[in-house]
Write a structure and sequence with these properties.
The protein is an alpha/beta fold. It is 30% helix and 24% strand. The radius of gyration is 23 Å and the shape is globular. Bound molecules: adenosine-5'-diphosphate and magnesium ion (MG).
């Protein structure tokens, strides 16, 4: 059974520096030069299309099997540079599996991907230099302070020690943790840990961020702050791929979303288009004089007005109430998980 293979996966804790020494010497190997995914699994490395400069991530037929389970099933992705792209799906849908593959930490069973112009399978070093990954679970870092934690990761990226103060200071300011710089990481609140984990993903100033459920477990205020921070990072020119269950938030923040369930990408594109494509956009609920209630799907304002005219002119029943129901991604998610949208 495959497992994530690199220490940059936060669910595999990076060992703390030895006691007595404030920080470890930089490891001998650059993160990017860590061993590529283990051989033995058949990997399709053929790239049938020419690289596209406008895309930060391209994937074709990405597939991952765990025994007979298809965790990821033939997924295609085209994610434009500079965009915030959201992946939505219920637990077990395959979101983390997809992210682990894109982040060079898991070998796919089949398919290929190009991340920041490079193959995560064939050129993991090049991908890791350009991409920052925030895992769904943060590792345990006993007795490291916030500042030491970021310095430790700066060291693993071979950033010069003389650059650490300004780098760490800038990151802590960005994620609003400067007052916590000397706090032990394990003593931080959940929201603060998430922000610190995001700062860690930014240590080497990557052009792409892959964030696995960064808002999970956060209170509403912390979620809003995270969203603002991600928009700020987008403003700085970074591309962001984010998975979440916080659908209303993704809808507001993402330029495009992909809906994934049981390893399959059901749809992808701008949130509005996805809703329309899946037929779960706007509908109109009408209560008639005879007590019946019916719901009519409508594509937009024009269709809604036409429906109202038709009901008043052509329908014998009196219309008592006429309510517009704008379904959002939350509704879509519910429909998907209930098997209503196939
Ligand atoms: N290492 C593993 N071994 C076996 N099955 C796994 C492994 N990792 C994930 N899975 C399974 O693959 C499916 C997709 O998991 P995951 O990608 O974590 O989904 P999500 O992140 O959307 O919740 C799930 O059914 C999960 O149980
Ligand atoms: Mg997950």
């Amino acid at each position: 059974m495959d497992e994530p293979i690199s220490p940059i996966n936060g669910s595999r804790p990076v060992p703390p520096p030895p006691t007595g020494s404030p920080l470890p010497p930089p490891p001998a190997a650059d993160l990017g030069s860590l061993a590529p995914p283990s051989p033995g699994t058949a990997v399709e490395l053929i790239e049938p299309t020419a690289p596209r400069d406008d895309l930060i991530i391209e994937a074709r037929g990405l597939t991952k099997h765990y025994g007979s389970l298809k965790a990821l099933d033939n997924v295609d992705l085209d994610i434009p540079k500079g965009s915030i792209f959201g992946i939505i799906g219920p637990n077990g849908a395959g979101k983390s599996t997809a992210f682990l593959i894109l982040a060079t930490l898991l070998t796919p069973t089949a398919g290929w991907a190009r991340v920041c112009g490079h193959s995560p399978m064939a050129e993991p070093a090049a991908v890791r230099r350009r991409m920052g990954y925030m895992p769904d679970v943060m590792g345990v870092y006993e007795n490291l302070t916030v500042k030491e934690y970021l310095e430790f990761h700066a060291a693993t990226y071979h950033i010069e020690r003389s650059e650490w103060p300004s780098l760490v200071g800038g990151l802590l300011e960005l994620v609003d943790l400067d007052v916590k710089r000397d706090t032990i990481v394990d003593d931080l609140s959940r929201g603060m840990k998430q922000r610190l984990s995001l700062a860690r993903a930014l240590v080497h100033d990557p052009e792409l961020l892959i964030l696995d459920e960064p808002a999970s477990g956060l209170d509403p205020r912390a979620r809003i702050e995270l969203r603002e921070l991600l928009l700020q990072l987008q403003g700085m020119g970074k591309s962001i791929v984010i998975s979440s269950h916080i659908l209303a938030e993704l809808q507001q923040m993402c330029d495009a979303i992909g809906v994934i369930e049981a390893g399959q990408l059901l749809a992808s594109g701008p949130p509005g288009r996805i809703l329309a494509q899946l037929g779960v956009g706007r509908s109109v609920r009408v209560r008639f004089g005879d007590g019946t209630v019916e719901e009519f799907p409508v594509a937009g304002d024009d269709e809604q007005q036409a429906l109202l005219r038709k009901l008043i002119v052509d329908d014998d029943r009196a219309v008592l109430e006429f309510t517009t129901v704008d379904k959002n991604l939350e509704d879509l998610f519910l429909q998907i998980t209930q098997g209503i949208v196939q």
